[in-house]
Amino acid sequence: xxxxxxxxPGYAVxxxxxxxxxxxxxxxxxxxxxxxxRCGGGTTWADLDAATQxxxxxxxxxxxxxxxxxxLSVGGGFGWLTGKAGLSCDxxxxxxxxxxxxxxxxxxxxxxxxLYWALRxxxxxxxxxxxxxxxxxxxxxxxxxxxxxxxxxxAEVLRWFGDFLPAQDHDLYGFFATMTVPPxxxxxxxxxxxKACAVVW
Length: 201
What we know:
Number of strands: 10
Structural class: alpha+beta
Distance between the termini: 35 Å
């Protein structure tokens, strides 16, 4: 199943098999009073964020805008708002799902609760989600950016942040990534990047 198609291992496509491409299913509707958003299975976080920010609302989503809502959400889904609002899957209210036997069901806390439980972080093996409904949160400003260190400083940096981050308010969120950044002659070793985000609610 291909939602946004942003997937490093290439799980969004396959060789010698069938790809169910949902990328045209990108409609988003927002109910600002109920603080809910419903989006199609091919929606990207850019689509969802654009629709919700018009109402000063948001849900935890990907840190890269062209990531698909579907793949990130059924896999858990961390983003800039995780510290305050939890994972994407924590905010999933319901999902419309086509099961392997061809049924079209609504998975929620009160309808097919086992499927609902599995979809919230269990991965994309339980059916094809054609739409997601999320709980939204008021957000005013998000201020974020990366800081980078040489890989040789990894232990020291992680020890420092291990003390620093838990002592902060939940408005501050951060995560680490290890990568090699070109050109190689300028950055001869991999480095660790910490991305931090402060949210004004």
